Amino acid sequence: MTGPADHNGRDGYGAVARKEDARFIRGLGTFIDDVTMPGMLHGAILRSPLPHAVITAIDTSAAEAHPGVAAVITGAMLAERGLAWMPTLSGDVQPVLATDKVRFQGQEVAFVVARDRYAARDALELITVDYEPLPVVVEAGQALAGSAPVIRDDRPGQADNKIFDWSAGDAEATERVFAAADVVVTGDMLYPRCHPAPLETCGAVADLDRVSGRLTIWATTQAPHPHRTFYSLITGLPEHKIRVISPDIGGGFGNKVPIYPGYVCAIVGSMLTGRPVKWVEDRSENLMATSFARDYHMHGEIAATRDGTILGLRARVLADHGAFNGAAQPTKFPAGFFHIFTGSYDLRAAHCEVTGVYTNKAPGGVAYSCSFRVTEAVYLVERMVDLLAAELGADPAELRMRNLLRPEQFPYTCPTGWEYDSGDYPRALRMALDIAGYPELRREQAERRAHGEYMGIGISFFTEGVGAGPRKHMDILGLGMADGADLRVYPTGAAVLAISCQTQGQGHETTFAQIVAAELGLSPDDVEVVHGDTDRTPFGLGTYGSRSTAVSGAAAAIAARRVRERAKIVAAAMLEAAPEDLEWSDGAWRVRGDPEQCRDIRQIAMAAHSGLELPAGVEGHLDAGSVYNPPNLTFPFGAYICVTDVDPGTGVVTVRRFIAVDDCGVRINPMIVAGQIHRGLADGIGMALMQAISFDSDGNCLAGSFMDYLLPTAVECPSWELGSTVTPSPHHPIGAKGIGESATVGSPAAVVNSVIDALAPFGVRHADMPLTPAAVWRAIQGRPLRPDLATS
Amino acid sequence: MQVPAYVEYERATSVEHALALLARFGPRAQVLAGGHSLIPMMKLRLVQPETLVDVGHLTELRYLTVTGSVLRIGALTRHAELLAAPEAGRHFPILHDAERVIADPIVRQWGTVGGSLCQADPSEDLSAAFAALNATMVITGPDGTRAVPARQFHTGPYETVVAQGELLTEIQVPITPGAGSAYEKVGRRVGDWPVGAAGAAIRLDGDVIAAAGIGLAAVGAEHFAAPEAERSLIGAQAGEQALARAGQIAAEHARPVTDQRGPADYKRHLASELTVRALRRAVARARAAGRSAREG
Ligand SMILES: Cc1cc2nc3c(=O)[nH]c(=O)nc-3n(C[C@H](O)[C@H](O)[C@H](O)COP(=O)(O)OP(=O)(O)OC[C@H]3O[C@@H](n4cnc5c(N)ncnc54)[C@H](O)[C@@H]3O)c2cc1C
């Protein structure tokens, strides 16, 4: 359902059907596990059953004697080749295969290469590893205790488990604002460790050609080009001899940004055996060992006047990064973009401090469509605003409306330095309240409460900064975050666009074709989009952080405009007019004042490849390329309202309605935009109500399967009620912002606010996600659960 | 990908054949029915049978019939078939209540009633439902068949009285005119195993409870039943007070354990809360059944 939106670009470039669906709905996609090669061998990883232990001995002889086994690789063997440790995306190192000790349950210890996956798994059982268990750090809060074992004793000079201390904002100005405020409200909240859990797990097929020295690696990667560079740096193979192919990807959500030990093992396996080697992890491996998300232990403080003007915000965060700092984010931002935590409000001052710590858990932290930790930031501020509303006895909608940034304040520089590009926040909130029928919902809530029925209404307003990013501020391991686009127009006018970003379900083959088609007066069917193959596409940083449309989309539009400018010169020659006398309208270059005199791209393309005499300065053909270095991030925003019903006898929460008004600037394909929002809203229900990677006190991961790590289904999701406003980005070539993560970022807070609102009559102020039946019931009892630990 | 260890496979063509195969392959052989519990455990290598004896195709054990005053369910009947069977729903609404919230349509299409009971997971919903109904399990072995009350069928977590070389072949449920039954479950999500669940079967004499069965899943109730709570109901007025007391007693005798689905105190609370809710609906259904019996 679509709400009453304004028509300023709401229908965008048209809701055309997704080109890629023709193969997906026939089951004819090519995912990693569909890649097979003659002579291909299969790898499997032996993982540590213990979260922290010294490896005293590994005996692989029985596995090597297995008739199906081609090679057994250990950390010691890798160490001989200088490959035992590899860099992480946060400038730390991580073992490919453990050499000294294991530091989380599920860590990679040995790799078997065998004739098939059965033999590989059988051989794993034949390897014996002797472990000497060490004390474990499971709780982030214990990581810095004096008694905590030092997990990273491999790091010279590391005497504790601290990774970094980082802060943003003005501490003194914030202190002054707090000292003068009428009201200060504080809150402690955990954004628990969760997991992006893409349906396709991670995997690779590596093929090192011994004759040419070329390495081809098919891999589940959202960032093929940086991966090529890193493989070159890790293995020492020259970069031009490496080809990374990312075939169809069955969901990424940030899980497929890092380089995992399994990929490197597959490469080494191919080096040693001279055969292609496939490695595909199973579900448990994906959930237990690959990049998790969040694990932010947050303390928030909000200051306001008695009449409800929010003055300042403070946050202290303990960030659990696991055993290795492998968070995938721009180098200069160890806490991602968390410091956009003032959200959508007009505050005087803000300050946040983040301390990152090592624990005996899997590495990661930045994933699950989090916009580089904006998810955590939005959750914090939106919970704090609700806590403030409760303290003041104010309506949470009115309190937000009163404090939202006003349209005339844009471009707006927030207290921690982000420059928000554009927005009309009150309009979006008003639209959401209208679609919801807010006053009527509040009346119904009061009536139900009188009958002992508990219904909640939760609001969340979010602002994201996406499209990383200006290369002078943002890089990943030194690679500036710019993206290229190459556009070729063939003689018939058919076009091929090659881009550096990598679709994982977002519909790039359609959206990017629409961008080019709109610029050149073509049909999207005339434009083929090539991606996911480093040999066929220009360099760029890939798809995550909602950056594809914001960065690559801009690159594509600019390349198309360059083609159009070349076409203008050719058209001028065809029309025997001066280029300055032509104007582009209605999909063709036309003689000003005589619009019937025109040539469209098809005609021009043929002419550009023909014998036509071209003016000096044009060499022929229409191809053009571009590299887009964004001047700023784009700032999508939205207003979400969630209506829940809570059964206090069982703690069961039912999401009755969910209203989402999103503004992502100009919408290219509104159907794809809606699909992205639907997905993110479902994510939000998952996180808020059922998902956590929890551990027992011994450090055992308790969420190693979909029986325990739950994905929401259609039954838990209401029929989404969407609305939209369109506030174009002023600096983006087509005014578009990102949409891939908005709903994941914005929705969890709305669900939690709704449940807490429902529980207000019980005096509940806060309860941590996931709000499982048990967690809700315990909150009502006044004995909240620790969702990250399976203890009572 | 998770893959099982090497295993031999034999497909049984009759009950007799299945028993012969089980005898031939001995203790390292295991019965395969729908495979929805066994195959995942094999893929995780928690069990490694040498031989699978597949009984999944034995149509002779795939039926649902009423004989006299007994509903007979063949062990190979799929969850989906039990859910779709009108005679099961008419006499035992508890079975349809439970089946509606067991797993998902795919699992229900493959998983069998017998496999569910033999798996003997402490959270198995049907074990609680059949305990509430005081069903009888029919076990067939080389020496013929024997009948075991539902409440003596399970001997512990993942353990039943079905011996090596035997098959569960049928479940028999006595039909009591004018009875009512219901099942209540809390999961974290649709298709989830229960965090806690309770089933109730009630027969009324006027407004007095004449017979009561209470089954519990996932809350550590011995034999999936709550006999002390049942006893408290016999002869009581079928009102809130008696139901609440029964719930309390059921909770007191439950021995739940804390896990990722929830802490023990919450599960104990569910034992009480869901027992009361199941009883309430069972009583209402018994009243309705009594009314229609009088009117009809
Ligand atoms: C995703 C999922 C969700 C689930 N959710 C629920 C739920 O919510 N509630 C619930 O109660 N259950 C749930 N289940 C369990 C499901 O009901 C069982 O897996 C299924 O019914 C087992 O039947 P089967 O025929 O597949 O048994 P199999 O897996 O084939 O066998 C199970 C065990 O029983 C033995 N066995 C099977 N048949 C016989 C027989 N006739 N005689 C002797 N031994 C036999 C086998 O040897 C094996 O040990 C779920 C399962 C899955 C996979």
Question: How does this model look, in words?
Answer:
The complex is a heterodimer of chains A (792) and B (296). By secondary structure, chain A is of the alpha+beta class. Chain A is built from 19 helices and 34 strands. Chain A starts with 20 loop residues before the first helix and ends in a 12-residue tail after the last helix. Chain B folds into three domains: 8-54, Uridine Diphospho-n-acetylenolpyruvylglucosamine Reductase, domain 2 (2-Layer Sandwich); 59-174, Uridine Diphospho-n-acetylenolpyruvylglucosamine Reductase, domain 3, CATH 3.30.465.10; 179-295, CO dehydrogenase flavoprotein, C-terminal domain (Enolase-like, domain 1, 2-Layer Sandwich), CATH 3.30.390.50. In chain B, helix 5 (93-100) packs antiparallel against helix 8. In chain B, strand 8 (154-156) and strand 9 (159-160) form a beta hairpin. Helix content of chain B is 39%, strand content 25%. Chain B is an alpha+beta fold. Chain B contains twelve helices and 13 strands. Classes of the chains: A alpha+beta (792), B alpha+beta (296). Chain A binds chain B through residues 33, 117-118, 121-122, 125, 280, 282-284, 649-652, 689-690, 694, 702-703, 707-708, 710, 712-713, 715-716, 772-774, 777-778, 785, 790-792, and chain B through 1-3, 5-6, 44-45, 186, 188-193, 195, 258-266, 269-270, 273-274, 277. The site of flavin-adenine dinucleotide (FAD) has 31 residues of chain B, from strand 2, helix 6, helix 7, helix 8 and strand 10.
Task: Write a brief caption for the model.
Chain A has 792 residues and is an alpha+beta fold. Helix content of chain A is 27%, strand content 24%. Chain B is globular.
CATH architecture annotation name of the largest domain in chain B: 2-Layer Sandwich
- Mean pLDDT value of chain B: 97
Mean pLDDT of chain A: 96
Rg of chain A is 27 Å
Radius of gyration of chain B: 19 Å
Distance between the termini of chain B: 59 Å
What is the strand tally of chain A?
34
